[in-house]
Amino acid sequence: MLKKEIRQSVLRQLKAQDKERKAKLDRALLEQLLASPNYQKAKTLATYLAFDFEYDTQTLIERAQKDGKVVLVPKTYPKGRMIFTEYKPNELEMSKFGLLEPKSDQAFAKDKIDLIHVPGLAFNSQGYRIGFGAGFYDRYLDDFQGSTMSTIYPCQEVDFRSDPHDIPVRKVFTYAQGF
Predict the structure, then answer these.
(1) Is the pTM value of this prediction over 0.70?
(2) Which residue segments constitute the domains of the chain, with CATH numbers given?
(3) Is 4 annotated to bind ligand?
(4) 5-9, 94-98, 109-113, 129-133: which range is least confident on average?
(5) How far apart are CA 99 and CA 50, in angstroms?
(6) Was 132 annotated as part of a binding site?
(7) Annotation-wise, does 161 bind a ligand?
(8) Which residues are ATP-binding (predicted)?
């Protein structure tokens, strides 16, 4: 299957998820992420502001703030450029992708980010991902030295061949037991 077809198939499955089951999966995935040594050691966590069919990052953001971590979210620019800036809920605006993103252009230094929680639509067993197709994360992660992780639903586990420019996520949490 081509990446475009995988993207469309997984997107359909994500949008068709039962809300109650999704909420249970989100809680189980959050517990795994919070228990990970990389999360516990991180002083700075970069995550994303999710679509409603994606893993619910709002609970992660709130927990990370309670845990005293600096929370960052992405801001995108033309030509696939992206920065992370500090999360300030009252300083967000709607992006052209229909997601909230920071108004600020103040980039947080990449080498000061301990952990990036990476979004994606599909992931293979080696941690390679298929995103929405703009390449923002592959470009950003190309020279990133910190930890990366993702939280995904069973329908997002797909076997596909990665491309040479793809950057794998180092730890992918998935939760299927009992659901």
Answers:
(1) yes
(2) 3-174 (3.40.50.10420)
(3) yes
(4) 94-98
(5) 7
(6) yes
(7) no
(8) 3-7, 129-137
For 130, what's the count of Cα atoms within 13 Å in the CB-facing half-sphere? 23
Q: What is the token pair recorded at 12?
A: 């359909």
If DSSP states are collapsed to H, E and C, what string results for 133-150? CCCHHHHHHCCCCCEEEE
Compute the C-alpha angle 110/111/112, nearest 5°. 90
**6 marked as part of a ligand binding site:** yes
Residue 157 near residue 121 (C-beta atoms within 8 A): no
Q: How far is CA 56 from CA 34, 44, 51, 67, 99, in A?
A: 14, 19, 8, 18, 13
Q: Determine the residue type at 86.
A: E
The answer to whether the annotation marks 133 as part of a ligand binding site is yes
Express each pLDDT in 26-61 by its tens digit. 999 999 999 999 999 999 999 999 999 999 999 999
Q: Would the annotation count 134 as a binding residue? A: yes
Question: What single letter denotes the amino acid at residue 156?
Answer: Q
